[in-house]
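Why do we bother with holo predictions? Because pocket geometry can differ from the apo form. Keep that in mind while you read this record for magnesium ion.
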Amino acid sequence: MTPIRLAIVAPCYNEEDMLPISAPKLIALIDDLVAAGKIAPDSFLLFVNDGSRDRTWSIISDLHRRFPVCHGLDLSRNVGHQNAIMAGMISAVSAPESADAVITIDVDLQDPLECIPEMIDAYYAGSDVVYGVRSSRESDSFMKRFTAESFYKLQARLGLKTIYNHADFRFMTRRVILELEKYEERNLYLRGIIPMIGFPSSTVEEVRAEREAGETKYTLKKMLTLAFDGITSFSVTPIYGILAMGGIFILIAIAIGIYVIVSLVNGTAVHGWSSLMLSIWLVGGFILIAIGLVGLYVGKVYIETKHRPRYHIQTHLR
Ligand code: UDP
Ligand code: MG
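The structure, written out:
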């Protein structure tokens, strides 16, 4: 069996502290895998600079100069983790780089490198997609662990076909990435799309490590955006929730109607200003929430119909 040409794609956003630590480890890993005959000698690393404002790109260019195995992709602005990964994967499998397979890994190496040989073994055993699954998140803060795990559970309840506790540490062959490219949506949520593509897949268990340097680049805002995208891009269950709420409101209205009629018949119907005010505000509030939720979907339709390009490459070192 000829060894595959592997590309390891790492998105980098303001990672000047982390990159000098991760790059030597990744280079050594590629060397070891080549020496072991698991991957082809022309395998490479592809660092994707996601519009960093610090020295990240100059570090990547320098790595490229010193180590031919390091390639770099400079995006013209910050497009976010998901789009940066997509840019890296597509460039890695397209000519002239033409990698046979890609592993995506965050540059902070919180997902352990030791899993990579296992992923490659799983490929030789017949998998097109190998998901890294976090079996332990001990190193994450309580809040991060709690919010992340609740989110994965909520997704499962809403009917998404996601892999529990899998983030974007993943092995994919070229043919799966070419299929992925056919998904034209701009609200990219890879963890939701990739299981939909199918192909033989397997998982490797990993223990998530702590970030060695630099801070998390996933601000609360970025995390919430990802969570909303993950749900509204794949599930219409929230709309059914609105329908159910509407039904309950009608039932309540009927009950109030009966109460009003009974009070009228009994001649006790004057008091009522407070209940009226309450209803107006409550119902108004719920209507606004409902309109807002529908608006989320309409907003998506609006963006999708534009078919805007997902990213623009500024420089491509190879
Ligand atoms: N990242 C990116 N663009 C962004 C935010 C993050 O490319 O807008 C990259 C970042 O450099 C890192 C990965 O995405 O390689 C995951 O980010 P981070 O480790 O900060 O997130 P966490 O592990 O805390 O969820
Ligand atoms: Mg991280």
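The mean pLDDT is 89.
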